[in-house]
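User: Fold this, then the next.

Assistant: Folding the first:
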Amino acid sequence: MDLSALASQLLVGLSRAMILFIVSAGLSFVLGVLRVPNVFHGSLYMIGAFVAFTIAAWAGEPALGLALAIAAAPLVVALVGLVVERTLLSHLYQREHLMLILFTFGVMLILNDVVKLVWGADYRSILPPAALQGMASAFGLALPRYNALLLGAGPVVAVAMWLFTHRTRVGTIARAAAVDREMVGVLGIDVSRVFALAFVVGCYLAGLGGALVAPTTSISLGMDHTIIIEAFLIVTIGGLGNIWGALVGSLLFGVTQSVGLLVWPQFAVVFPYLATVIVLLARPTGLLRSVW
């Protein structure tokens, strides 16, 4: 096996891992603060991709369209999440997890039908601007230019989430609510608003992941199914509610899948799940500390 080919493939895997991380970070944040296993998180990712397509098509010019799509699509998804949280989910926080899973599963089915009504069942795609097309080379390694952009997006989101949770008052309150929500309420803080903000942040990240992945894949119904399965596995092996655990789990997923494509292409999809099984057998609580 050529080492440069292996390194290039690993870089592609890392760029996919960044998308997985962005989506999983949102799911992990919601899990950590609200204790809600949000099954329709993948549907928000899909909506983000479709909204990005609509904005890019409306803009016309590829560079402007992609920039507007990445900026606006996550905000639209966050607004959808806020409406669902304020009107429905906020009344169910005290229910058991099975009830929450069933509720979010029902919302997933509704959102999928809404997407089908608005955009239809046709496959869509976004053409990246010319500057992000083709391959880039550095140190003898080849990588699609857009994937290089994704490689940079992941660390930016990771740092932004750390700053939000550790350097802002709202983020500090959200971390406190994740540990002891009753005590936060006793201190006179409106926990309901904290939960709403945490949920909106999670939805924003799902929409951001959908907008960023749109130029690299076909935008279609069903694209939410794979991502939500992978996201739940990532937050499980990383540590429930742990953002850095989501990053580690995403890197594990992306790298093992890339290696699988080189070693055994027909069964490459099995490699990340095999790695997940090994991790959970060795550390059932996840690689990093769970907040649950």
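Now the next one, as you asked:
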Amino acid sequence: MPAVDIPGSKSITARALFLAAAADGVTTLLRPLRSDDTEGFAEGLVRLGYRVGRTPDTWQVDGRPQGPAVSEADVYCRDGATTARFLPTLAAAASHGTYRFDASPQMRRRPLLPLTRALRDLGVDLRHAQKEGHHPLTVTAAGVEGGDVTLDAGQSSQYLTALLLLGPLTRNGLRITVTDLVSVPYVEITIAMMRAFGVEVRREGDVFVVPPGGYRATTYAVEPDASTASYFFAAAAVTGGEVTVPGLGEGALQGDLGFVDVLRRMGAQVSVGAESTTVRGTGELRGVTVNMRDISDTMPTLAAIAPFASGPVRIEDVANTRVKECDRLEACADNLRRLGVAVTTGPDWIEIQPGAPVASAVEIKTYGDHRIVMSFAVTGLRVPGISFDDPGCVRKTFPGFHEEFGALRARL
């Protein structure tokens, strides 16, 4: 039974770095993800004056509940959405300072407005240098009083996560009324991790109540990335092979592990144990209609294996995937059509007709998106000659993906 060593969760590593930086004391992170996104987050903390020690398997962060150690900094967020959304929020809690943030052209295109509007409503002096609601931006910090704020998190749950993480650093705590919310499991990750650092969030319907008081440093183990695991689980499903991912089991924080339930509905055999999850392909993949609002990062994975199903695969309620690293709905549709697959899309859905791709030796257009590369690598297990116009963009979350996936291909 091939066991695959999946690197640490990007989402958990980013949250852990924020929490560690804000905590009182030194936090040790075990098995954090080392990728372009997380290295960029750690580098941003260093630019803000935090001490971050990094070895291959552990990172240590010397927390500063009072905020950044420097009163002025320029921070480049690279392509990282968590970096670009969380670090300006962290800087806003400083008692004083001017902090300028910028990001890659790709990240500059991605929206920030619901978060920056909420921060302004809380009294934060925040200015966009070029386009309202986008990087670059400047935060002139003077601490955050706290209180009531309303937030639309219908584009990204990261907006809510950023405010939740900020709450204990405000003078009076926060009451966040959410008018719309996508990817709820990611918010549940945030709340569970805040609890591990000593803060209990209370939810009252659409209102999240965060007390003031700060975080406690701890030792925190980062679990494997469930979104990344989806490519390996899908590989088993489309080849009739078997894959086990240690470290992702019944107690996993990440909602994206729910992707295996989709594979089960399609005909794969799935076993979720206490410490690991196993998927075994049965030689059959059935068509399915599935709402992926809460696990939308795995939408491209399902789209990439959909042509091998016996019936249509329809993925619904994933409008937010249009404002990720690229428009993932259209990127998936474009590449499937390149392979000769019939696809239709709507504002928040994609439907893929059955029938193995008729084209081979196709170059997949990645749009610089790591998830498009990793998803269509799974398609390549059944379609010879697939290549990518930018295979290296996997460095964002999994620099060693091609080597690890190639090793799995040889064992399946």
